[in-house]
Amino acid sequence: MLRQAVRAALFILMTACCALPAAAQPARHVAIQLVAESTSPAPGREVALAFAATPQPGWHGYWKNPGDAGVETRVDWTLPAGVTAAPLDYPVPQRLVIAGLMNHVYEKPWALLTRLTIPAGLAGGTRLPVTAKIDYLVCTAEICVPETQTLSIVLTVGDGAIAPATRARFDAWRSALPRPLDAAATWSRAGDRFRLSVPYPREAALGEAWFYPAAAGATDYPAAQTVTRDGDRVVVETKAAATPATGTIAGVLATGEGRGLSITAQPGEVAMPRSGADWQAALVAFAGAVLGGLLLNVMPCVFPILSLKALGLARSGESERHARAEALAYTAGVVAVCVALGALLLGLRAAGSSAGWAFQLQDPRVIGVLLLVTVAIALNLAGLFELPTPAFAGRSGATGAFMTGALAAFVATPCTGPFMAGAMGAALVLPPVAAILVFAGLGLGIALPFLAIGFVPALRRRLPRPGAWMGRVRRILSVPMFLTALALAWVLGRQAGVNGMTLGLAAALLLALALWIAGRRQLAGLARGGWIAAAGALLATAAVATIRPAAKQELALAGAEPFSEARLAALRTQGRPVFAYFTADWCLTCKVNEKTAIETATTAQAFRRNKVAVLVGDWTDGDPVLGRFIERHNRAGVPLYLFYAPRAPAPRVMPQVLTTGMLAALK
Prior knowledge:
Helix content: 40-55%
Number of strands: 23
Shape: elongated
Radius of gyration: 31 Å
Number of domains: 4
Number of helices: 18
């Protein structure tokens, strides 16, 4: 009853103040501008109008349902004969709790949209004067002030042309409106609990969700809301309103980042999700991480290390106990690095960063260090030198096995593949303990082959007997490591330009010379070879530490545009299908998909034929805006492929391995 009394008092105060002469009105705390999308609307068509509101700092306006306190905005129109105005469309609101009362507000600039219908048969050049008297309430945390403005605009019947700058403004305002959900939601009341079930694709991103009912009688506004994903639906549970509603309930389900869905819910049964959903999701993500990590072992940067370590175990001829100890130490090294990177990632995100998996590869200096490491490993495998580091890959002992596992995990971070990206994305929305479990699962997947060799004697017996051939195999294994170094040099060039790549290659050459001199001294039985190698590594690392990112390069796919949410909204408003993909120069899977499926003549012809717009999000430098968008689609990093069909409420998240046939079918 207190809330209704507060709202009634505000309404009476607002009505009384709005009746005062204009000279008695207080200074306006929200500036409102009446804007027409086209000043020359065509006869028989609609033209969009916007009330663009800009509040002073500390002031806010109200949504259609203002909450526990506030008043809905009212507009009185003075229109030419035959012209009609549609109801106002409100953007997704925010929540503001003051003295225990929940307010549905706008604290930043916002726009209320409407449409005027122009009668058919009007002659070109006909003037259409439009006047709107708008009454609204603005407040701070301490005071509220009713304000009124009378705004006018003159339209002239014409061809309906829209200036590009004006279209962009309206596209941005429309992007803030809730999207209509074409499927009916369901609500129920059990005791004092209100439950709402909203159809929502399981692959669609969901940020900080909140249900805003369009009228009283559904929820107790300030009560906490529990939002749970359950397959292809979202379930909202909260305290019910004291005076229950009946029949259809309308409202907006905010989905985070100022986005939302306009929903209509019918009364019915709402089954609650099963308990323990977070841990069920964690177990699924853990399984995906294990499978993804297992597949990383076939990558050219990991396979030589795994192979050499396995052959080293076979060559050592140690006991069963020793083999198991080495397998466990290798696993511990892999898991430790994956968990450490995961914990660092979670810490950065908790501090407000939009970092994703392999976040460290967004820095070209890290790529430079990886280039040096892979060159050193390749030269070691080629037989140029023998040092405890990084030659520990072929040595026995728990310490060597642990260091080998840590190295394998570190050089595997540029790679992603099936199962892995979804698992990493899930880890970012799980509780911290469950997320760390997922990162440990990735490490377990990478370590699984060597773990199996260490614990299954039958597998070790299948390894070839030691012999001179092992030296030849070791040199053959240097080839994929050299290829990995070549790929890293290319990534460095993409990130830091030709100058950065040249500096990285020069540092690699310096390191190679130092290792060559150290290797020659080893062969001659001379001392201090290790000091020479260490000095070369230190100088080479200092050189790559000076590398800085270069400007982004042109997009390779003809007709593609850089991704922005404003451009995406504009294309969707035009009714065009949109293929948006998010990539990074350090993402191997991204580059394979681009060369084999996306940047092909077949795909380009199909996109032109079906009028598919292409937006490219380049996340090479860790753009935080892209990072937040990627996160909203339950991904921790790239690749991410989205297809927006015309009029579809949410995008379709496409597989991480693409084919030209899959892309050609998009329309």
